[in-house]
Amino acid sequence: MARAPGDVRNDRKSAVSKFCLAMEEHRRTEAGRVRTAREMVEFFFPRTQDSATDRIFLHIPPEVRGPVISGWGVRGVKSAVRDTDEKVRDVVLDALGAGDVDETSFEAGIGAQILIDWVPLTDWWTFWRTGKLTGIAIQKALAVGRELGLFDDRWFLGNVEGRGGRLKGTDTLCDTLSKDQIIAWVRKVHESGDGSPAGLVSALGWETILSKTSQEALLFALDALARKVGLVTPHGAATEMPTGASEDVAIPAIPALQAPRIDGDGGRYLSGPLGSSPLAAARATVVPAVDDETGASSGWPDVDARVVPAPPPTLLSVDEPLAFHEKETDTAPHDKARPLPPPPFSFKG
Fold this sequence. Notes:
Layout: H1 15-27, H2 37-44, H3 62-71, H4 77-82, H5 85-98, H6 103-109, H7 112-118, H8 121-129, H9 135-147, H10 153-159, E1 161-162, E2 167-168, H11 170-175, H12 179-192, H13 197-204, H14 206-212, H15 215-229, E3 261-262, E4 269-270, H16 278-291
Antiparallel strand pairs: 1-2, 3-4
């Protein structure tokens, strides 16, 4: 299917694409230079002396990459457009090895618009995010993201964390503000009467937040933003079952067991045609023994079912009446009641 004119891999109208383009253009400035031209070559076209891995040209269509390669003077215009992905990889590898194309020319030839139009944006984010970032780059990224509507103030306050996650939200912002700045912030919130996230950010000032908040906290929010908009490939994605005819799945051999047959006379279970499997052998041995109601195992003693075992002896005799007093014999000698002393003698006057 032919590609329509102006049709690109990544939608230029998308806020995420606009964000990546703005940050790639900022990367190529002196203030935003977080990755060098050499690092761009090493990431998108890693190579050894004899081979290379193409992570950029295979995503760019021939009509777009052809003029780039011919502009380096290493290939004719028509040949560059007709070249296959493998041929382009070999031509660029030879040009970099011979010094016909250096890192600066490589970066300049593949402009920011071409890069963001065609490479997977997750790859570009990995390239831009891997390594150390400057405070200017982090502040720029959050400012562009908020301007493009990728997040609002409520989301920001819910995702800015400092001191390794011990501080969240407004606590994180207050951590790097002076006492006078906090008092002025509270006064403005009181005057406006707006304690919503938008009111809090407006009272303090977005520029003040970017300049005063710790870079660690801002970077935490930036990484959360990348996950939110899909620039980070999620881990633990659902596993898809193979569907191709050549993708065989190993399934263990499970014997097909038939249901046991039931004898119509005695209702006993029979083993059925289960072959010589261990389950059939075990069933053939156990089931007859369980279903046999007349015989007993040869190892068991013969028991007459008519003989009722005598009950265990008890402390009471059958003919002895029940009594609720203690017997004299059950009382210890020192527990017997002593006789009362005789009454005193009475004398007549």
